[in-house]
């Protein structure tokens, strides 16, 4: 299948799932915890994943799905075409705020990001990329990221990590400002859109970052783990995603990583 047709299909699934999520928000839905009391999952997360699972197995029987809510267990490699899905990224925001959450899809071919789709469901912002054809925000092409000095940068990280990391504290002192949205997919998409200049996280799964990293590739952004190593998209890892000039400037501060 042509990659643009695959992109259009992925966008149509994401839009349909987003309509479902907005509808469910009118009612009460079940909320459970997973590994600890702050690790939330709702019936809506599970149903969105099931929706993708059914669509992909029916229409793309040769493709595989790696999703947060269970459809990851059999995925041990990225051979062929793999859809890496976070049905709701930012579940805590979904439950507490009713906004600032996203559906994130990265479609990989033999380990390489082919398509990225991140949809900010309540703000109706759609970030889409196709390998070699650029990235778009609601049909507006996103420009390549430009050089910027660190003292004009806006960076995002979880404040809990900053408390424990002297190097990040030094970054905080030098940048123009810090933000923390609690939704990795949107934070990476914001780096791709030039709204943020860097996003650092100490613990993310492939589904948190797959769609965002596909977008970043198309605007000249950089994404590695915190130690500067290549991402595998198969295991939980750290993340350092940034505008390329800001990446280099922050890297100099990360002396004890
Ligand atoms: P989630 O909402 O899909 O769980 C919050 O800072 C960001 O980190 C969100 O993108 C959230 O995704 C992700 N996240 C939350 N808990 C996590 C965990 N235990 N491991 C990895 N990522 C997590
Ligand atoms: Ca989760
Ligand atoms: Ca997530
Ligand atoms: Ca999730």
UniProtKB/TrEMBL annotation:
A single GO BP: signal transduction
Reactions this protein catalyses: a myo-inositol phosphate + H2O = myo-inositol + phosphate
Residues involved in Mg(2+) binding: 68, 86, 88-89, 208
Protein name as it appears in the record: inositol-phosphate phosphatase
Gene Ontology MF terms in the entry: inositol monophosphate 1-phosphatase activity; metal ion binding
Pfam families membership: Inositol_P (PF00459)
Keyword terms: Hydrolase, Magnesium, Metal-binding
KW Amino-acid biosynthesis (keyword) present: no
InterPro entries recorded: Inositol_monoP_metal-BS, Inositol_monophosphatase-like, Inositol_monophosphatase_CS
EC numbers: 3.1.3.25
Signal peptide positions (record): none
Cofactor: Mg(2+)
